[in-house]
Amino acid sequence: MEGKADLHIHTAYSDGALSAHEIIHRAREAGLSVISITDHDHTGALDEAILLGREVGVDVVPGVELSATVRDQDVHILGYFFDHKNPRLLDYLSHFRAERVKRARRIVEKLKELDLPLEFDAVLDQAGDGSVGRPHIANALVETGLTESYYEAFLKYLGAGKPAYEKKFQISPREAIELVAYAGGLSFIAHPGSCIGDDLLFELLNEGIDGIEVVHPSHSPDRTLYYRGIASEYFLLTSGGSDFHGGRKNGLDVLGKYAVSKDHVDMMRRRLR
Ligand code: AMP
Ligand code: ZN
Ligand code: FE
Ligand code: FE
Fold first, then answer.
1. Closest listed residue to residue 188, CA positions, set 31, 61, 60, 85
2. CA of 208: how far to CAs of 14, 41, 234, 236, in Å?
């Protein structure tokens, strides 16, 4: 592939394990010429990544992953090429993060009622400066020996519909898309194959989405083709990436394996004009 792009990467500013610095170096080693850092509700890694990327020859596209909700279902929206200094966007993101902290507190309360006495500070330790998410709670549960594994934590307690589940702050996909557009960016439906059915996908096409993430570890080759077909039918852009979490969610080796050609990024740039 001439010029590979991985447009879905998390750092320690959300629930990834690695710093922007480590990501850039690993991206270069993996032969990626473009990446996007798409932390959940956070843009803290972008400045460092962009600067360092320039030094080592990895182009860094500003990105973010927002969580929206439709009828109690999570829909993730990836934003790209927005102005990551836009004050309104930054205000919203810090509000979403504050709401994440409150939600994590509610989850810890529920865990206590389930006889899992997890200290809230143990969760904050896991999150550091990053936006707090359920992966941090799962890791804290494992580290304190309250559950055997990360996946057990989700399966028994933290997953949607499980006894310690708590909803996030709710925004609609349209609100997420408008926020990204306000800051001059493009919105993509993230990993449709892992979270939403085809009916909901078609519903979202009417909400002003600019593209679909077609390449993702949760998509079979058939699914990827299917989403490419829909994108082409509706004149939408396409993107893809590894959803890298620094080894936390999927392995370290996914970096470089789930990529799209650099053309995809050029098409995004053209759509911005
Ligand atoms: P949050 O942003 O707090 O809702 O956490 C969402 C993250 O938790 C996702 O990006 C996944 O990395 C992880 N996650 C969600 N559900 C599961 C699950 N059932 N098993 C493992 N990880 C999950
Ligand atoms: Zn994540
Ligand atoms: Fe996601
Ligand atoms: Fe993600």
1. 61
2. 26, 20, 11, 10
For residue 51, what are the contacts with CB-CB under 8 A and spacing of at least 6?
none
Q: What is the pTM of this model?
A: 0.96
Residue 215: count of CB within 10 angstroms of its CB: 25
Length of the chain as a residue count:
273
Q: Give the domain extent around 112.
A: 104-158
Q: pLDDT tens across 16-63, in order?
A: 999 999 999 999 999 999 999 999 999 999 999 999 999 999 999 999
Looking from the CA of residue 40, the nearest atom of ligand 1 is 2
163 is a domain residue: no
Is 192 inside a domain boundary? yes
Q: Say if residue 211 is in the same domain as residue 130.
A: no
- Ligand 1 pocket (Cβ < 6 Å) reads 15, 40, 67, 133-135, 151, 154, 159, 168, 249
Q: Are 24 and 140 in contact (CB under 8 A)?
A: no
